[in-house]
Amino acid sequence: MYFSTAYSAIAVSVPNPPVPTRTLPYGDAAIREAAAVIAAGGCVAVPTETVYGLAADATESRAVAGIYAAKGRPGFNPLIVHVATRAAAERLAVFDDHAGRLADAYWPGPLTLVLPMRADSGIASLVTAGLPTIAMRVPAHGAMQALLAACDRPLAAPSANASGTISPTRAAHVVASLNGRVPLVIDAGPTARGIESTIVACVDGQVRLLRPGPVAREDVAALLGVTVGGAGAGIEAPGQLASHYAPSKPLRLNAMVARDGEWMIGFGTVAGDATLSATGDLIEAAATLFDALHVADAGPATAIAVAPIPEDGLGAAINDRLRRAAV
User: Does residue 76 carry a pLDDT above 90?
Assistant: First the structure.
């Protein structure tokens, strides 16, 4: 049993009338205002090094329900909890040797660990969707770290977009998706990584990759000296729904040329109306992926085509997002 269906109704039962959405540049004033919104039980959009997140107090059920309501997110889909340090994470979950070594190597940074949750964690059950595990990471971005310090509590923060749509890598993407649903967006420009964190489960002595991301499977295996397994059949972590990250237009993958009516997103030697990276740089491609999809989705073309992306390293994470977007 991977989730409790009792939670699925919560996301639609919380009133969410339109609210004025303000955008403030990242700075002390914006952090103070965001912390005040969170202290009052609300949620705010804040940048991380991966994508923009929608943050609320992870210890308050009603605050977390506000995230689900704003996103229209299914209640069986768990959330990532952001904390400032590994010590803060250890107060919420049980670390084995594998988890400790991964945290030492990649925190702060774009790695989420799914670990057994402590009984006294104080985390709202809606965050974990009824699972006995909790997904956590220590973010590297200054804005999220400043907000964690100002709030002095763990923050649940999925991507700041309507559920299932293209993830936001700019404040403008958040406003386009959630205008009237959240009171505040902190703008710190485009995100550096441009793709969501890698998610690795360390439970019962096993290490499993639940979502590809900036930290590659091969790097995890090499660090730990173990075989890294895969995800099971159920929902254990964010980003595992078959259809996710989707534009409103049909998306065709592994295209070498555009068909009539398509906006072509190139890569490497395959040119297009825009390119993820003309030099075939996978880091650049990951950073520009969602931005390119936003531009294509907002343009006049009726469909989108994307050039082939190699499956090596970070390419596996890019292709994972593209396959889910094309469903």
Answer: no
Residues 219 and 256 in one domain: no
pLDDT for 26 beyond 70: yes
Q: What is the pTM of this model?
A: 0.86
Which residue segment(s) compose the domain that 272 sits in?
Answer: 251-326
The Cβ-side half-sphere exposure at 71, using a 13 Å CA radius, reads: 34
Largest interatomic CA distance in the chain: 58
Residues 179 and 265 in one domain: no
271 with 193, same domain?
no
Return d(Cα 95, Cα 88) in angstroms, integer.
12
Q: Among 146-150, 159-163, 225-229, 234-238, whose mean pLDDT is lowest?
A: 234-238
What is the SS3 assignment for 124? coil
In contact, 94 and 136? CB cutoff 8 Å:
no
pLDDT at residue 171 in the model: 98
Total domains in the chain come to 2
Same domain, 91 and 199: yes
